[in-house]
Design goal:
Helix content: 10-25%
Shape: flat
Domain RRP4 S1: 76-147
Distance between the termini: 38 Å
InterPro entries: Exosome_cplx_N_dom, Exosome_RNA_bind1/RRP40/RRP4, KH_dom_type_1_sf, NA-bd_OB-fold, S1_RRP4
GO molecular function, one term: RNA binding
Number of strands: 17
Strand order of the largest sheet: 8-9-10-12-11
Subcellular location: Nucleus
GO cellular component, one term: cytoplasmic exosome (RNase complex)
Oligomer: single chain
Largest sheet: 5 strands, mixed, barrel
Length: 291
């Protein structure tokens, strides 16, 4: 075990991405954004004494006359069409309950799941009895947000082979605000790993698979090679290093961090040390700035 005294730690300085705009404005709760009533109030703001005031800590974004504040850290709110990763917490009543890094569990109904073999079957009692054969408690699944209910509960769907049960791999959790918005959420990286960037902040790392075959609901017993497992562990620790220093997460940044850790000859287990995490974050930002 290695113990580092606080006095021996390097000073903590804010790491700013080189792509960040110099005009980005950070606000804290209660801070006045505009004293002009002509601006429309968006999420994260409220009106007080004719002024628009921030209700959360974050950065100000403006589209025409609509002003919103995007929180620096937040739970997932949900939007129709988002690809997310969830963990099954409850099975029964013709539906699965999923933990999706939000304040409420989401709902995935049996009628919104494509059965194995793309069978177009009537979802009857027999299908409900076999729900645990498809997804049991603790299983990870990739799904799409179909609807946001008035009660705040997200209704999910998995009607194509693009969605389904996630097999062998590991899950990394972080704030959704750190993920770069991208329509393509599934990427096969050059290091032999497939990454699912869930819009809810859950990132799944697993070995590459046949994209044409898609996801299924069967468990694979195929052994994952040592090199692939080490690569997945390295990617996982790199993700944690980037998230700790608030570096935006994307396929580009994660590969830059992965390559930097190899070039610096850093063992996988050492990537979780505080000073090493900072070095990886700085190297990643420099690499992105040079490209």
């Amino acid at each position: 075990m290695e113990i580092i005294l606080a006095s021996e730690c390097p000073p903590q300085e804010t790491l700013m991405a080189p792509t960040a705009s110099s005009h980005t404005r950070l606000v804290t709760p209660g801070e006045v954004i505009y004293e002009d009533t002509s601006y429309m109030r968006g999420h994260g703001t409220y009106m007080e004494d004719g002024c628009q005031v921030a209700s959360v800590a974050g950065y100000v974004s403006q589209v025409n006359r609509l002003v919103t504040v995007t929180p620096l850290r937040q739970l997932y709110q949900g939007a129709v069409g988002d690809t997310i990763v969830g963990r099954v917490t409850q099975v029964g009543g013709g539906r699965w309950k999923l933990d999706i890094n939000s304040r409420l569990d989401a709902e995935l109904k049996l009628v919104n799941v494509q059965l194995p073999g793309a069978e177009q079957r009537r979802k009857n009692v027999e299908d409900e009895r076999g729900m645990r054969d498809l997804l049991s408690e603790g299983a990870l699944v990739c799904v799409e947000v179909q609807k946001v209910g008035q009660d705040g509960v997200l209704r999910l769907a998995a009607r194509t082979n693009k969605f389904g049960k996630l097999g062998q791999g590991m899950l990394v959790s972080m704030s959704p605000s750190l993920l770069v918005r991208d329509k393509q959420r599934m990427h096969d990286l050059p290091c032999g790993a497939r990454v699912v960037f869930g819009a809810n902040g859950y990132i799944f790392l697993g070995p590459t698979c046949d994209q044409e075959q898609g996801l299924s609901y069967t468990d694979s017993d195929e052994e994952v090679g040592v090199e692939v497992r080490e690569s997945l562990a390295r990617l996982s620790n790199c993700l944690r290093a980037l998230a700790k220093h608030s570096v935006m997460i994307s396929p580009t940044s994660i590969m830059a961090a992965h390559d930097a850790s190899i070039q610096l000859n850093i063992p996988v287990k050492d990537l979780l040390k505080g000073d090493v995490m900072r070095d990886i974050a700085i190297a990643t930002l420099q690499d992105i700035a040079d490209t």
